[in-house]
Amino acid sequence: MARTTLVELPFEGDFSLRDTLKSGQIFHWEPVVFRGVEGHAGCIGAGWPAFVAQDAAGAVRTLTGDVERVRRYFGLDHSTAAVRSAFPGEDPVLREAVAYCPGIRVARQPLWECLATFITSSLKQVAHIRAISLSLRERFGERYEFAGRAFHAYPTPEALSAAGEEALRSCALGYRAKSLHLAARAVAAGEIDLAAVEREPSLERAREELMRLHGVGGKIANCVLLFGAGRWDAFPIDVWMERILREHYRKRLKGPKLQAWAGRHFGPHAGYAQQYLFHFARKTL
Questions:
Q1: 244 burial level (CB within 10 Å; 0-12, 13-18, 19+)
Q2: What's the domain range around 259?
Q3: pTM (2 decimals)?
């Protein structure tokens, strides 16, 4: 069977699987050993779990049948050097952040899964977000077996819509259960077309469309566009980012004005800059 064969996955630039998995983008991958190789496995949307491993020399391996989806999911289909070439030339803070965590990549998650996960992440720590994600997967997602373990795909909008708000609340969602249920219902009913959001050339219009959903503000919309739609010009701002922009860039702006400044300063790959800065801030501030 082709999926049992491990092959090396080529890529350009820096990549750290460990840092990317711990960077606050992705919450459900599990450490596993497959054919004697230590790595991580997780479902990418619907379908079987994917496996990815990185050795001490930096080489990345995955299963033959998963090469393209793993490349896309972990952002290995582009060069980090090309991304950084668009960063502002005189920015010592960003330069230090890149040096601190050069291997972080911006993931490209299935858009519904990304939207639902960030709706449930509001005011939660990473451990709590992960626990909620796994609970939703186990209760409402399709089950698969891999490396002697059970893995679950993220539930479809139809599954969460049918489950109802009370069932979602029992997964420790609290008030977020209402937002997740309403989002699932809107997507399942075609009231929000995520494929159209992903194709929308205007970042502002794409953000506004997502913000039609209950519980989705600017920060969540920007996270979804950055980590799901591949919009590197999206720049999510939360308390961490406000803190680093205030302390290191001396910016006292708020809301749309701060958002606009970040877009101008960091340029077309502002979202990538945000990930370097976010990881740097979490570890050093």
A1: buried
A2: 239-279
A3: 0.94
